[in-house]
Amino acid sequence: MPLVPLQADILGPAYRVETFSLPPDSEGPVVATLVKLEAAAPTGRAVLHVHGFADYFFHTEYAQWWADRGYTFYALDLRKYGRSLRPHQTPNYVADLHEYFGEIDLSWWRVTERDGHREVIVSGHSTGGLTMSLWADERRHPEIDAVVLNSPWFDMQGAAWLRSPATRVALERIGSSRPLQEIPRKISGVYGRSLHRLHGGEWDYDLDWKPLESRPVYVGWLRAIRQGHQRLHAGLSIPCPVLVLSSARSFFGDVDGEEAFTHDIVLDVEQIRRWASSVGRHVTSIAVEGAMHDIVLSRPAVRATAYDLLGRWLDAWVTPAG
User: Fold this and answer.
1) CB-based contacts of 38: which residues, under 8 Å, 6+ apart?
2) How far apart are the first and last CA of the chain?
């Protein structure tokens, strides 16, 4: 398997990055990218994190928080996302969430076998939260110490007909026959503007990799998501402690305003909380007042609250600090 040695990442010299090749698909060569931030001293503990849709890893504060607690932090840019996106590819597209298991497995081997970590926390945001829940349930690796989910996408938000049996049947049929048919949708860009520092937010990131207007959604990809939802709704059995963080409230509007900075304007938080208990037998669900969709990108006081809650949960159920 071709492997590019670890190099300095775009986030700075403390972050090391490696790109590894995956089996080609119908569009050609496929790669995934693993970013690593070392803890100050070896502890045998690590975090493996996966981003959401139309996203990539740039969350240095989140990574540093874990490193300060003694966890080496790994973030995976999945195929066709961020550092792994190539010009010949349809951005962010897969026809089955299991396709991602290939790069997650290879990253897992690097974290546990190559680098020797024996206590690993699995982390995922939004679509990554759904994907990592399915992966952790299916793989059941003994080194998985806990799962942390940041606003995981557990159901289809919107009108009830979107979740109806008739819609599911139509999605299956069209997704099988015309998977790359684009689904028309209106993207206001409010969420992106609430994040990026050039548009009123706090964060600086690559707008080619995380566009303000998100990415096109294709029928085959949405079919894959709904199949993942079905599996989760049937009940997973992740045996380790799971933390599900969400905002306290959702708001769906297309005008810039204070709500964009204090609500989840991407997903329905009531759905997240409804399905949280479907992940496993030991689940803690916490609503963070004033949080945005990506909780660790919320305003500073809200982030401080979220990190405090995360730390107390870790101390109580996973590994005490120290």
Assistant:
1) 14, 16, 67, 72
2) 38
- Quote the CA–CA distance of 179 and 94 in Å, as a whole number: 10
Q: What local confidence, expressed as pLDDT, does residue 1 receive? A: 40
290 near 302, Cβ under 8 Å? yes
**Distance (Å, whole) CA 245 – CA 312:** 13
Q: Which residues pair with 146 in a beta bridge?
A: 121
Number of residues assigned to the chain: 322
Tell me the C-alpha to C-alpha distance, in Å, between residue 155 and each of 40, 127, 256, 264.
Answer: 39, 10, 25, 14
Go through the domains of the chain in sequence order and give each one's CATH number.
7-317 (3.40.50.1820)
Question: Helix axis angle, 219-234 relative to 165-177, nearest 10°?
Answer: 130
Cβ-in-10-Å burial (0-12, 13-18, 19+) of 109 comes to exposed
pLDDT in tens, 150-182: 999 999 988 888 888 898 898 999 999 999 999
Pairing of strands 71-77, 7-9: unpaired
- Of 150, 258, 250, 246, nearest in space to 200 by CA: 258
Task: State the Cα–Cα distance between residues 35 and 104, nearest whole angstrom.
Answer: 13
